[in-house]
Each structure stands twice: as structure tokens, then as C-alpha cells.
């Protein structure tokens, strides 16, 4: 990139009273005097003719002028006069100084030279310091600011949403020139460029519309049609060509930018909105869960509860499944130092006949500052949001690392090949900043989700500041041990799910060989995955907390949680809403609940058990499966120490 | 219809409606496939065999994707229930190794039947499963190993150890999981045969130290052995 800015030239017109010091001098009669210097004009285009006029408080003063501070001789022809005419040939800023500084601004004349500037230093401002090599950031304009029900980038309207677009400064030019915008090949279908409300580059047709260049500084706006994804790393080069009357390109300039990644939120990020589908009637209503969230002070004051009416989504309650939430962020273009956040949903490929939550993201979620991407691909339960979690920030992953589930083997060795579809995995990995996404085993589970065996919670204790989280892991081993303890203490007839129609005695549970095979195999599979997380992420034993969960055969060779899956919880800052395991109650204490409290005791979390038995558990889900949380991203990716 | 479920369906003429196959029911859940275990829990060997041979018609969705799930669910549920009859189920199951034409899930049916042979616990199936463990269909071969694991007998363990010594690495993962299931100490304790289970496990562990374990399976074996030490 060539600079057309005026280089500052620090010069001094140096004014001296003969025979005396620089500013306060002695007059012939011995009185002191003060010299003042005036430049006329004090600004203009080079070459600039300036008359310097010196005056003093004393009569009879004589002056010697130096054009710059670096000059070693006075002007020979004007020695003793009080004016001098000077020509400054080079652009820059000249300071004449004796008793007062006089700033003289010398501007460069307009040139027929293209110059674009974008916010490469990512401070939200587009100015001279950005006129260097680098990449600015732009968002995919995939929210709906004008309320027309489609993503803003899908039409050619400017929409008035400058914040969602990246400004490109066009430096002034002269002459009868026209400008045209070109976009490099990889991005030709991915960005649109506006001049004011007019489109000057259209991705659908890949046509550019010429425009008259201006003698004033103007702005283009780049609109991202989509963000990083399979087949495009989000990088774009935008070129301005200046063309004369004969069609000859007299000058061109190119700037570069990159689409912001979608950063998937983790459970340490501050909650902003909690979504749950309200199922108002029937045996499987979820009033208990909604009531728990609605109770006074149940949620942080900065969080809002959003209850989606079940009637509007065919009572499809699995709002964890239809989307994965995160943000895309860029420097705020309209003020310095701010961050512009667009809350993002990755709309998952989920076949629900268009009647359930598969319509939620495009028709309910979509709003100003709420956008979405839709990677599509094959439908499988492994696509769902419950099968995608983020291990929070680690040294090698300042924004955390994505974990999803899949594999090829049921617990018993039978074939069970299933995983997230390639389009979604490619989309996630294309974001780069939290990847590559790590696949762990979940294909052995009935639904096939990682939240059927682990979940991340904050560790609020000061000692945990370096690694402020724990991974809560389902443990059949702990469940069995607790159950054996109950039996050993004479509680063999105590039951799981005591308030339900079907309950199971401790003796019955411990004497069931197939149940035991299932749980031992599940434990070994979980241990295997925990070892993998340790190896891949540098975690240690103390980073994990085991909670009691039994599994049971669930058709075919797959298994599901026998008691409500405790790890399938909802984190809202300092409080976790935990599925009530409904374990055996001995001496007035639910031993599974108590073990859970003990497991989380040193995290300072407030543990709230919620009844999800009929509303979720019997339908192969739990609390996490029925919720989704919009979270703030405290530090934008470009300030988080990740590669751009 | 529920009231009829206890009867034999060999002579039934009306299509069988299973509540678990109703999309209104199963699409409420998150399960990958529907469940019909409750629907078939009261059926006898003849009724189950009739369904699985396609002699009793069952109501499925018209939509192909749904129907595929529903057929798989019916197979899982009915075959699993059939296996619970033990020796009595072996012949009907063997007859399904050449799957009937009613289902598009013939591969799934065959693999599920093979695993179910092991679940019967019948002594006669071990030799057959050892043969099926080398089936050209990898899913069937894996199911045969799983079936041997579910059999949880000395003979099944012997067959699995023989496979471990000689088999192709691609199926070693299935063999190892089956061996783990067959020697599950939690299961042997639950069955009141802890000492027998310990002896069986010791024999398997000795063989494991001699076996060529592939890199893909090394972590599983390490974790399994560590678990056994706890």
C-alpha cells in the first residue's frame, strides 16, 4: 500500500532579536522585549508562500529570520526587517517558534492515486495509522435489523445497519475519474460492497458498478454475506481501481479483511438469556423446571428467562438440540475501542418436519443483533447442540476447545457408526479459534451426545483462577459404590424413584447382571474418554468431578441414563440447576443428591436440584437438553491471543 | 390393540399397531430410534417370530426416513424380546439369518439376530457365533463378537480369545469389548459368582499381555486393566 498522507515535516522559523537571546531580549536602551511571530497564511497547499511577520514589545527591535530551526544562517536579504516571505515546497507541518508557536499546515495537492484504508489495528477507527499492511475484521451480516424476516445479507438493502458492516475509507482524488471495486476470487460470492445506500459490488452477479470518485474522503461499506466456513477461510481482498475517460486504469489500491469467527460460548461466559420451551400441560409438562428458573433471584440479575411457548413449536422441548450458540465480534465501527457483538446460532441439521424447533432459529431467534449460520449436511442426532461442548480457556486454546461426540463402537463391541455430519464439523473447524474440534466417544449412548456423560461448570474459588472450571463426569462406579453402601447399611429395600410409578429397589439393582455389564462397560468407556481429554488438553485428575449416574440398555446396543443424568445440568453463573437423581433416600438424605453436593462442594457453586423426571428424563433427555443459554464473550477473539 | 398383545399373532389379519412406532410418540423423545420394548413385552415366541418374518403386518409410517427408524426399532425390540426366551428362541433366530424381504433393514436385522443368539445364553450358539465372527459383513462379525460377550460363558470366552490370537486388527476392538463384557466383575458379582468371574478375568488378562494389541486399542486395554485394579 502506498501512502498519500502528508508526512509531518518539523521545521522552525526561528526569530531572533539581534545581539540578544531567542525570545526575551534586551533593546538598545536596555529595556527587555518579547518577540511575536505571525505566519500568513498558516496553511495551504504546497508549494506554500508564507509571509512571516515579527513584532516586539520594544521599539527599534531588529529581527533575523531562520526558515527552519535547522538553518544555520539568517535570511541575508531581510536581516533587520520585520517581515520575510518564505516558500515551503514540501508537504508537512512547519512550526515557527520564538515567543509563540505558529502552526503552518501544508497539505498535499489531490492526486489521481487510489488509496483505501481499513481498520487493520482493530481499534474501531479508520485513520492514518491503519494505512499499513494488515487485515481488518468484518461480520457476516446475518441478523435481521430491518425486521423483514430474512437475514440482512440476503437482500441488497443497506438496511441502515452500518455497525454490521466494515467501513473502507477512500482517500480523496481529483480529476474526472471513475472508481470500480473488485473482489478477489475466493470471496466473490461472499461479500457485497456499498457506497452509501448503493451497491457497487454485488456478489450474486459478481458485477461492479462504477462510481464517480470524490475530492472528499468517502466511505465504502463491506457486507459479509457469510462468514468463515467450509471452502472459505473468510479472507477477502478488495481493490479500488481508478479509471480515466479513456478507460485506462490510472491507479489502484487493495485492502484485506477477514470474517470474524463464530466463537461458541462456554459455561464460564456470563449468561445473558436462558431459553426454555414451556410445556404447559400433560403428564410430561415442565412446570417444575420453568418454576425453578422463574423463582426470585434464581437467575443472575443480568440474565433474562425466555420461555418459548410450546404450542408454537409443536411442544418440541429440545432447545439444546436445534442450535449451538455463540458470538461473532468485530471492533465497533462507529466509536473507538468498542466491540460490536452479534449473537449467533449455528442452526443444526435436525429433521423435525418443519413443525418443531427446526423453525425456531430462522423465524424466532432471528432479530436485530441475533443472526445465524446453517451449515446443513446430513441429519443425525449427533449434529445437535447437546453433542457440542466447549472446554473453557486453556493455554493452547485461549477461547477454549470444541468437543463433540461420535464414534463407531457400541459398549458391547457391536458396530454403531455415527458422528456429527461433515458439513457442521467443517464449519466449526473453519472458525479456527477453538479448534480443531475434538471428537470423543458418544456413539454408545441412546441419543449420542457428549452431554450424556459430561458437562463443564465454573469453579468459583480464588484458588482456581488459573483454571476456573471443573468437568462434571457421570460415574457408574460412584453410583454403584453408593448403592452398595446403602445396601450394606441395611437399605437394600430402599428404592430409586420412590415417588414414581416404577421404582427399583437397591437389592434389585445390585443383583442384575446385564445392568451391571452395561454400567461397567459405560464406566470404562467414560474412563477412556477422560484419559483422552487429559492427554489432548493437558488436564489432570483434579479437573474432573464424578457424580453418580447409572446407565441402562435402551434398545439395540445403546444405553441411556437410568437415573436422571446429573451431569446434564444448566449453569447460570454461580448456580447450577441439576436434574434431581431421585436416588435412594437413607436417613432422610437422598444419597445421590448428597454425593453430588459433595462433588461440587469445593467449587462454591450453588446446587439446585430440579425435577425433570417426566418432563425430560423419560423422554431421553435432561435439564441441559431442554435449555440453551446466550452468553457474553468477555474478550473478543482478536484481543484474546488467538491467531486471527 | 394393546389387549391383544398377549396373544399369538400367527393368525392375525389386521395390521399390528404398536404405540412405540407412532411418530407422535417417539418424536417427542430424543432417542435416535423409537422404542417398542413395552409393546412387545407380552408377546410369545410365535408372535415375535411371525412379526420378524413379516407374516404379521405392522403399521409403519409412509415417510421413508421414519419407516427406516421404525423398522429398526421393531427389529431391536422384537429380537431382544425373542432372545429373552433362551434356548426356545435359538431356532427362530437362526431362521432369520437369511432375512425376510419385508424390511429394508435386512442388514440391521441380521446383525441384531446374531447378537441376540448370544443373549439367549444357549450353549449351542457358541460354535455358530464363532463362525459368524468371520462373516464378510463387518457389522455381523462385530455382532457375533458382541453376542459371545453377552453369552458370558467359559466357552464364549475361549472363542473370543481364539479370535484375539488370530483375527484381523480391524475387528480387535469388538473382540476386546466383548471380552470385557464376558468378564465383567460387576456382572459376576451381581450374579453371585464373583470367584468364577475372577478366575475368568485372570485368564483373559494373562492372554491380553501376550496379544498384539493395535495402537487404536491400546488405550482401551490400559483403561480396562486399570479399572480392574481399582
Gist?
The complex is a heterodimer of chains A (644) and B (230). Chain A is mostly beta strands.
Layout of helices and strands:
The complex is a heterodimer of chains A (644) and B (230).
Chain A: E1 14-17, E2 24-26, E3 32-40, E4 43-45, E5 48-56, E6 63-66, E7 83-88, E8 92-97, E9 101-107, E10 116-117, E11 135-138, E12 166-170, E13 178-183, E14 191-195, E15 198-202, E16 207-208, E17 211-212, E18 218-224, E19 235-243, E20 249-259, E21 263-264, E22 271-278, H1 287-294, E23 304-309, E24 323-331, E25 339-347, H2 360-365, E26 370-373, E27 388-391, E28 401-409, E29 415-419, H3 422-430, E30 438-441, E31 454-458, E32 469-475, H4 476-488, E33 495-496, E34 504-505, H5 506-510, H6 513-537, E35 544-548, E36 551-553, E37 559-561, E38 570-572, E39 575-579, E40 585-586, E41 589-590, H7 591-600, E42 606-610, E43 627-631
Parallel strand pairs in A: 4-9, 11-20, 22-23, 25-26, 28-30, 32-35, 39-42
Antiparallel strand pairs in A: 1-6, 2-3, 3-5, 5-7, 8-9, 10-12, 12-18, 13-17, 13-19, 14-15, 14-18, 15-16, 19-20, 21-24, 22-43, 24-25, 27-28, 28-29, 31-32, 33-34, 36-37, 38-39, 40-41
Chain B: H1 23-26, H2 37-40, H3 45-53, H4 64-83, H5 87-95, H6 106-119, H7 125-132, H8 138-151, H9 154-166, H10 172-182, H11 185-190, H12 194-210, H13 215-229
Amino acid at each position: 500500500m502506498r501512502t498519500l498522507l502528508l508526512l509531518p515535516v518539523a521545521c522552525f522559523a526561528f526569530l531572533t532579536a539581534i545581539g540578544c537571546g531567542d525570545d526575551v531580549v534586551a533593546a538598545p536602551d536596555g529595556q527587555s522585549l518579547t518577540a511575536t511571530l505571525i505566519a500568513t497564511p498558516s496553511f495551504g497547499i504546497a508549494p506554500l508562500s508564507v509571509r512571516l511577520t515579527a513584532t516586539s514589545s520594544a521599539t527599534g527591535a531588529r529581527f533575523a529570520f531562520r526558515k527552519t530551526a535547522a538553518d544555520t544562517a539568517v535570511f541575508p536579504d531581510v536581516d533587520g526587517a520585520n517581515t520575510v516571505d518564505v516558500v515551503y515546497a514540501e508537504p508537512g507541518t512547519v512550526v515557527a517558534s520564538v515567543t509563540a508557536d505558529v502552526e503552518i499546515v501544508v497539505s498535499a495537492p489531490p492526486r489521481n492515486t487510489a488509496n483505501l484504508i481499513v481498520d487493520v489495528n482493530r481499534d474501531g477507527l479508520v485513520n492514518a495509522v491503519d494505512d499499513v499492511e494488515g487485515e481488518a475484521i468484518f461480520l457476516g451480516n446475518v441478523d435481521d435489523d430491518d425486521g423483514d424476516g430474512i437475514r440482512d445479507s440476503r437482500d441488497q438493502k443497506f438496511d441502515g445497519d452500518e455497525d454490521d458492516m466494515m467501513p473502507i475509507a477512500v482517500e480523496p482524488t481529483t480529476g474526472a475519474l471513475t472508481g470500480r471495486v473488485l473482489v478477489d476470487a475466493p470471496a466473490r460470492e461472499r461479500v457485497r460492497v456499498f457506497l452509501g445506500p448503493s451497491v457497487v459490488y454485488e456478489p450474486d452477479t459478481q458485477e461492479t458498478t462504477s462510481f464517480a470518485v470524490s475530492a472528499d474522503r468517502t466511505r465504502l461499506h463491506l457486507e459479509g454475506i457469510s462468514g468463515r466456513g467450509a471452502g472459505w477461510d473468510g479472507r477477502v481482498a478488495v481493490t479500488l481501481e481508478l479509471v480515466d475517460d479513456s478507460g485506462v486504469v490510472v491507479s489502484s489500491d487493495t485492502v484485506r479483511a477477514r470474517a470474524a469467527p463464530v466463537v461458541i460460548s462456554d459455561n464460564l461466559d456470563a449468561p445473558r438469556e436462558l431459553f426454555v420451551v414451556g410445556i404447559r400441560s400433560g403428564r410430561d409438562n415442565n412446570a417444575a423446571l420453568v418454576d425453578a428458573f422463574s423463582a426470585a433471584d434464581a437467575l443472575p440479575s443480568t440474565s433474562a428467562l425466555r420461555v418459548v411457548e410450546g404450542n408454537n413449536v409443536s411442544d418440541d422441548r429440545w432447545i439444546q438440540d436445534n442450535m449451538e450458540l455463540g458470538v461473532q465480534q468485530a471492533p465497533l465501527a462507529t466509536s473507538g475501542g468498542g466491540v460490536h457483538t452479534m449473537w449467533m446460532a449455528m442452526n443444526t441439521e435436525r429433521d423435525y418436519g418443519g413443525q418443531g424447533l427446526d423453525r425456531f432459529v430462522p423465524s424466532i431467534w432471528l432479530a436485530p443483533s441475533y443472526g445465524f449460520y446453517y451449515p446443513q449436511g446430513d441429519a443425525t442426532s449427533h449434529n445437535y447442540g447437546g453433542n457440542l461442548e466447549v472446554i473453557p480457556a486453556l493455554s493452547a486454546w485461549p477461547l477454549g476447545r470444541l468437543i463433540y461426540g461420535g464414534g463407531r463402537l457400541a459398549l458391547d463391541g457391536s458396530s454403531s457408526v455415527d458422528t456429527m455430519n461433515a458439513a457442521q464439523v467443517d464449519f466449526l473447524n473453519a472458525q479456527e479459534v477453538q479448534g480443531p474440534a475434538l471428537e470423543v466417544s458418544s456413539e454408545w449412548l441412546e441419543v449420542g451426545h457428549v452431554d450424556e456423560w459430561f458437562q463443564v461448570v465454573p469453579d468459583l474459588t480464588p484458588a482456581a483462577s488459573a483454571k476456573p472450571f471443573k468437568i462434571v463426569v457421570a460415574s457408574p462406579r460412584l453410583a454403584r459404590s453408593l448403592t452398595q453402601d446403602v445396601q450394606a447399611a441395611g437399605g437394600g429395600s430402599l428404592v430409586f424413584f420412590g415417588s414414581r410409578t416404577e421404582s427399583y429397589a437397591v437389592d434389585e439393582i445390585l443383583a442384575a447382571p446385564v445392568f451391571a455389564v452395561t454400567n461397567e462397560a459405560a464406566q470404562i468407556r467414560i474412563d477412556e474418554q477422560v484419559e483422552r481429554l487429559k492427554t489432548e488438553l493437558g488436564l489432570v485428575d483434579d479437573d474432573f468431578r464424578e457424580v453418580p449416574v447409572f446407565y441402562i440398555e435402551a434398545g439395540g446396543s445403546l444405553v441411556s441414563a437410568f437415573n436422571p443424568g446429573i451431569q446434564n445440568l444448566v449453569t447460570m453463573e454461580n448456580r447450577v440447576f441439576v436434574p434431581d437423581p431421585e436416588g435412594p433416600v437413607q436417613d432422610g438424605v437422598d444419597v445421590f443428591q448428597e454425593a453430588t453436593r459433595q462433588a461440587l462442594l469445593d467449587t462454591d457453586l450453588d446446587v439446585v436440584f430440579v425435577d425433570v423426571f417426566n418432563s425430560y428424563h423419560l423422554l431421553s433427555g435432561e435439564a441441559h437438553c431442554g435449555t440453551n443459554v446466550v452468553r457474553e464473550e468477555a474478550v473478543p477473539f482478536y484481543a484474546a491471543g488467538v491467531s486471527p | 390393540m394393546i389387549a391383544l398383545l398377549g396373544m399369538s399373532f400367527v393368525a392375525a389379519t389386521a395390521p399390528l399397531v404398536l404405540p412405540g412406532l407412532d411418530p407422535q410418540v417417539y418424536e417427542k423423545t430424543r432417542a435416535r430410534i423409537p422404542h417398542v420394548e413395552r409393546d412387545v413385552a407380552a408377546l410369545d415366541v410365535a408372535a415375535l417370530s411371525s412379526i420378524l418374518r413379516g407374516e404379521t403386518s405392522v403399521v409403519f409410517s409412509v415417510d421413508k426416513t421414519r419407516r427406516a427408524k421404525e423398522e429398526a426399532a421393531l427389529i431391536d425390540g422384537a429380537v431382544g424380546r425373542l432372545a429373552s426366551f433362551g434356548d426356545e428362541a435359538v431356532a427362530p433366530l437362526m431362521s432369520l439369518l437369511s432375512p425376510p424381504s419385508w424390511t429394508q433393514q435386512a442388514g440391521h436385522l441380521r446383525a441384531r439376530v446374531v447378537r441376540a443368539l448370544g443373549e439367549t445364553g444357549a450353549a449351542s450358539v457358541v460354535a455358530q457365533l464363532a463362525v459368524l465372527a468371520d462373516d464378510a459383513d463387518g457389522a455381523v462379525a462385530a455382532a457375533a463378537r458382541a453376542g459371545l460377550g453377552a453369552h458370558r460363558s467359559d466357552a464364549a470366552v475361549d472363542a473370543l480369545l481364539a479370535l484375539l490370537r488370530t483375527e484381523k486388527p480391524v475387528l480387535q476392538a469388538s473382540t476386546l469389548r466383548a471380552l470385557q463384557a464376558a468378564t465383567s466383575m460387576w456382572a459376576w458379582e451381581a450374579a453371585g459368582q464373583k470367584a468364577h468371574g475372577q478366575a475368568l478375568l485372570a485368564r483373559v488378562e494373562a492372554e491380553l499381555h501376550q496379544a498384539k494389541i493395535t495402537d487404536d486399542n491400546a488405550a482401551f486395554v490400559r483403561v480396562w486393566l486399570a479399572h480392574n485394579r481399582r
